[in-house]
Amino acid sequence: MFSFKIGNILIDSDIVFQWIIILVLAIGAYLLTRNLKGKLTKKEVVLEMLYDTVAGLVRGNIGESYMSYVPFIGSLMIYLLILNLVGLLGIMPPTKDLNVAIGLACISIVVIHFTAIKRNGVGGYLHGYTQPFVLMLPLNIMERIVFPVSLSLRLFGNMLAATLIIELLYDALNHVAWFAQLGIPIFAHAYFDVFDGTIQMIVFTMLTMVNIKMTAEH
């Protein structure tokens, strides 16, 4: 862990790692999508399979009318998955930082409410808070406030717990013998980084998708 300041702004390692991941993803996306010729090359087949997987997920969960969100959902899935998996490289997953989890939740919330306003207009969007009847207004407002809180805390809590457990495991094994750290942690990383990290990505993405539809059609 490290940190430094740019003026009065504190930049920590989680932010730096996110910048690096964004840069790598941007370069990778450029290299993979340039000079596409529509031929059945291995690269294009893999890219099409990836797109079809995300498109099928969007179509199956929120419907054909939301297919324009495939790029957003796909980008969110890839970015969040990589953030969760960097623990395999010996780097603390940025998602174990509450600020990072809140930032990701804010992105989802902006997309969710922008979609609702775009599809229903400002009047229709505000009218949705009174559905199914006016007395539901306080509960509907509370629901919209609680959702981003629960979305960010769920991601943060699970990733922080996984990180702490792995750290405790390494510390315990270090007291046994240094070579004990070479093999046993593989199983912990497989569960807490790969399995749990993938599950948290799926949960975050699915909740975002479902709420895009529910809020727009409420």
Give a summary of the structure in a few sentences.
The chain has helices spanning 13-33, 42-62, 70-85, 98-127, 137-176, 185-217; strands spanning 3-6, 9-12. By secondary structure, it is mainly alpha-helical.
What does this structure look like?
With 218 residues, the protein is mainly α. The protein has one domain (13-217). The protein has six helices and two strands. It has a two-stranded antiparallel sheet with strand order 1-2. Helix 4 (98-127) runs parallel beside helix 6 (185-217).
Write the topology of this structure:
Elements: E1 3-6, E2 9-12, H1 13-33, H2 42-62, H3 70-85, H4 98-127, H5 137-176, H6 185-217
Antiparallel strand pairs: 1-2
**Rg calculated over all Cα atoms:** 21 Å
Count of helix runs: 6
Secondary structure category: mainly alpha
- Beta percentage is under 5%
Low-confidence residue ranges = none
Overall 3D form:
globular
Task: Determine the fraction of residues in helical runs and give it as a percent range.
Answer: over 70%
Transmembrane segments: 15-33, 69-92, 98-117, 145-170, 190-212
Function: Key component of the proton channel; it plays a direct role in the translocation of protons across the membrane.
Subcellular location: Cell membrane; Membrane
Family: Belongs to the ATPase A chain family.
Keywords, separated by commas or semicolons:
mainly alpha, 218 residues, 74% helix, single chain
